[in-house]
C-alpha cells in the first residue's frame, strides 16, 4: 500500500490548532439520520480530516454528506457536499475516530469560501512565523 500521501496531494492543506477552531456536521449518504458533529483537523479543496468522538461504524469507501462547515469566525459553507471516506484511524483508548474524506463534488460557492478560509489560515501561519523570528 502506498502511504506517501504528500506525493499524491494536489491541493494546499491547512491545519487547525484546536479541536474547537473548525467543526462540521455530516450524515451518512444512505441514511437520513440526525447530523453527526465532528472537529475538522485539516482542510483542503480536495477534502478534510475529521475527528469524531463516539462509537461509529464507518468503512473506507463509505459516502458521507457534509451539511455544514463552521470556523471560529463563522459559517464557511452550508451546502450539501458529497464526500467519500478515503482512510480511517480508530484510537481505541479515547473512543476517537479519525476520518479522511475526499470531496466528490465541491459546488463553486463552497469552493470559494473554503479557498478563502485556506488563504486566511496561510496568512495567519506566515504572520506567526514572522513574529517568532523577530522576537
Which descriptors apply to this entry?
135 residues, six-stranded antiparallel β-barrel, 23% helix, 41% strand
Short recap of the structure:
With 135 residues, the protein is an alpha+beta fold. The chain has helices at 5-8, 108-134; strands at 14-15, 22-28, 36-43, 47-53, 63-71, 74-77, 81-91, 96-103.
Tell me what the structure shows:
- By secondary structure, this protein is of the alpha+beta class.
- It has a single domain, classed as predicted glycosyltransferase like domains (Thrombin, subunit H, Beta Barrel).
- It is built from two helices and eight strands; from the N terminus they run H-E-E-E-E-E-E-E-E-H.
- It has a six-stranded antiparallel beta barrel with strand order 2-3-4-8-7-5.
- A hairpin with a 2-residue loop joins strand 5 (63-71) and strand 6 (74-77).
- The model has no long low-confidence stretch (mean pLDDT 86).
Amino acid at each position: 500500500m502506498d502511504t506517501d500521501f504528500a506525493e499524491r496531494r494536489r491541493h494546499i492543506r491547512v491545519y487547525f490548532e484546536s479541536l474547537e477552531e473548525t467543526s462540521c456536521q455530516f450524515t451518512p449518504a444512505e441514511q437520513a439520520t440526525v447530523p453527526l458533529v465532528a472537529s475538522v483537523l485539516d482542510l483542503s479543496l480536495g477534502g478534510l480530516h475529521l475527528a469524531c468522538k463516539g462509537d461509529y461504524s464507518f468503512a473506507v469507501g463509505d459516502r458521507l454528506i457534509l451539511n455544514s462547515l463552521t470556523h471560529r469566525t463563522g459559517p464557511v459553507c452550508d451546502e450539501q457536499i458529497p464526500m467519500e471516506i478515503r482512510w480511517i484511524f480508530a484510537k481505541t483508548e479515547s473512543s476517537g475516530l479519525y476520518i479522511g474524506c475526499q470531496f466528490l463534488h465541491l459546488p463553486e460557492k463552497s469552493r470559494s469560501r473554503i479557498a478563502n478560509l485556506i488563504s486566511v489560515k496561510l496568512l495567519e501561519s506566515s504572520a506567526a512565523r514572522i513574529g517568532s523570528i523577530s522576537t
